[in-house]
Amino acid sequence: MKALTFENYGKSPEIAITHVPIPAIKPDELLVEVHAAGLNPIDNMITTGAFKTVVKLQLPAIMGSDLAGVVIQVGSAVTRFKAGDAVFASLFELGGGAIAQFAAVPEHAAALKPANLNFVQAASIPMVGLTSWQAFKDRAPLQAGQKVFIPAGAGGIGTFAIQLAKHLGATVATTTSTGNMALVRSLGADEVVNYKEQAFEQVLHDVDLVLGTTRGDDLERAVGILKPGGRIVSLVGPLDTAFARARRMNAFFTFVFGLMSRRITRLAKKKSASYSFLFVRADGAQLGDIARLLERGQIKPVIDSVFAFEQAREGLEYLGQGRAKGKVVVKIK
């Protein structure tokens, strides 16, 4: 089969469409013919080697984690799916890759595709949907009436997170540029800061939760807008000791991650607030809950552009420019 693979970590990852064997499935896996694969910023970050200590891959590796497609074979222990089912899933940290003609998908990671979405739309959901769900439902449960700040509201994670936060009854603040203000307001944003004209910390205040989606000094600046007892949940780092301990990493990495997050953790404590790093996990049950919201029209996919399979590398390059409004998807079948 054909797949988008990379050979090395670093400045020359050698990304290309290559021929690799169709994966052999385990008893608890599905063999899925992939129709579309969603792209995420971490796809580009993984090839740099930035996460090779925590995301274990055997090189050459197939790229991507989000997919939608049709089950063509099930393992002997699979009970929830059958051949012919349309599914979507995240393969993040599960060892496989999504930008391929076929993928082995663990049963626990898959959910039935929302009936009202096509494969391209469904493939745009898993990572941004699960990340938002795990931030707002698990890590820092968002209550109706609370205020959440979601920077970069027009991006892939922002467009989903705004909608989920509004569904949960929160007041949503975000940042974006002039051209995207109408978009984020249409998704439910209550307060929109044009980051090219104003600093968000001079406008926003009394925030219960900050979802860290942007790099640079934004996290430290966001501490100042939190109310006492507020929380920062970051998707972009720095990694922290709780993350290392949850993964049973050795004392060295626990120490290093503690150093990396020490400054932001101390700043948060001075405000009687807290900081934590969130790494998304594959979860088919949560994807099923998200699918129901999508089927009811309570959340809608936002797609910037669709690339053909042969242009998958160009799709990653486009995503890396940081200008996409919503998600970038590769159409494979």
Automatic annotation (TrEMBL):
Entry's Gene Ontology molecular function annotations? oxidoreductase activity
Give the keywords, sorted: Oxidoreductase
Q: What is its EC number?
A: 1.-.-.-
Q: What class of enzyme is it?
A: oxidoreductase
Q: Where is the Enoyl reductase (ER) domain?
A: 10-330
Superkingdom of origin organism: Bacteria
Q: Which InterPro entries match?
A: ADH-like_N (IPR013154), ER (IPR020843), GroES-like_sf (IPR011032), NAD(P)-bd_dom_sf (IPR036291), YIM1/Zinc_Alcohol_DH_Fams (IPR050700)
Q: Which Pfam families match?
A: ADH_N, ADH_zinc_N_2
The name this protein carries in UniProt is NADP-dependent oxidoreductase
Record organism: Pseudomonas fragariae (ex Marin et al. 2024)
Q: What is the lineage of its organism?
A: Bacteria, Pseudomonadati, Pseudomonadota, Gammaproteobacteria, Pseudomonadales
